[in-house]
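Duplicate of earlier report; 3-dehydroquinate dehydratase input re-posted below.
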Amino acid sequence: MGFPPAVLRLSGSPRASVSRMATAGPILVLNGPNLNLLGQRQPEVYGPATLDDVVALCREAAAGYGREIDARQSNHEGVLIDWIHEAREGASGVVINPGGYSHTSVALRDALATLGVPVVEVHVSNIHGREVFRHRSLVSPVADGVICGLGVDGYRAAVDWICRRQRGSGSVAE
Ligand SMILES: O=C1C[C@@](O)(C(=O)O)C[C@@H](O)[C@@H]1O
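Output:
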């Protein structure tokens, strides 16, 4: 059975619920290769919003819960991995659009699998309605939820979900 045009799969996986919930730290919003070109790149696929717009809407969503965003973008796999390692120390959650690395990077997946905070994978486009090579994400199995096809609103939904599930947990609990 295929996915409908817009896919929102958010599961409360045991991984995040048993994990370290450090809600004091910022939510890391990580964007991978070519996402710096949002708004210019294939607007018929990715829409008119820019990466700055994405960051602004994430900050707005987080601010509603008194939370902060740490937004970063890189075109380099190793840099993204280093930032995920950094997130192990202080981030309270990760929203990641791995771009093309979603479909190729075992290393990125392995880095994400080391995290003990909620991870949501976001794709602006509906990857399941596009080329077959985009249908499989190596990252999805280690994410708590996957949102695709909602345009940049998917980022807002991801931040909102992390904030909601951590609301009230306040402090670090092992
Ligand atoms: O760079 C991207 C963007 C994307 O992650 C998205 O947001 O829809 C989908 C990927 O297949 C593509 O390589």
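The pocket of DQA is lined by residues 34, 97, 99-100, 102, 123-125, 127, 134 (CB under 6 Å).

Merging into the original ticket.
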